[in-house]
Specification:
- There is one protein chain.
- This protein has 132 residues and is an all-alpha fold.
- The protein has four helices and no strands.
- It is elongated and about 80 Å long.
- The two termini are 54 Å apart.
Length: 132
């Protein structure tokens, strides 16, 4: 039977605990958030001690932290993608359409054939060996 090392939990305790200690120390230095800095310093110290001495105790806090992270990523990914689409892609498309950009030549006159002759580069057989 393989022995479990709890490496992930130890890393969680050390990393998150260090970040909380740094954050709490910064707030202490700046004289801000009296309750928040006390909670951050206490929780950070506890996580580091548990990570160093008893990583098994961090199994449930690590699972809870990952559950929170997955929920936040689910929401923020959709929000960020929606913002990028509606604030970047849509205005570019609207401006191009207003300026008459038509890469597929859909608005041209009716023709019997829409064939476009190949460029000189595409007619050269060496083009197929190194296309880009």
């Amino acid at each position: 039977m393989k022995k479990r090392t709890f490496r992930v939990e130890r890393e969680f305790g050390l990393i998150v605990g260090s970040i909380l200690l740094l954050l709490g120390g910064w707030w202490l230095f700046r004289g801000k958030f009296a309750f928040g800095r006390q909670a951050a310093l206490t929780t950070g110290a506890l996580l580091i001690v548990l990570g160093l001495l008893w990583a098994r105790a961090l199994v449930l806090p690590n699972k809870a932290w990952m559950f929170l992270a997955e929920g936040l990523s689910f929401v923020t990914t959709r929000v960020i993608l929606a913002l990028v689409f509606f604030l970047v892609v849509t205005p570019i498309g609207v401006v191009k359409r207003l300026m008459g950009w038509d890469p597929l030549s859909r608005r041209g006159e009716r023709r019997a054939s829409y064939w476009q002759p190949y460029s000189e580069r595409q007619r050269n057989p060496r083009h197929y060996e190194k296309m880009f």
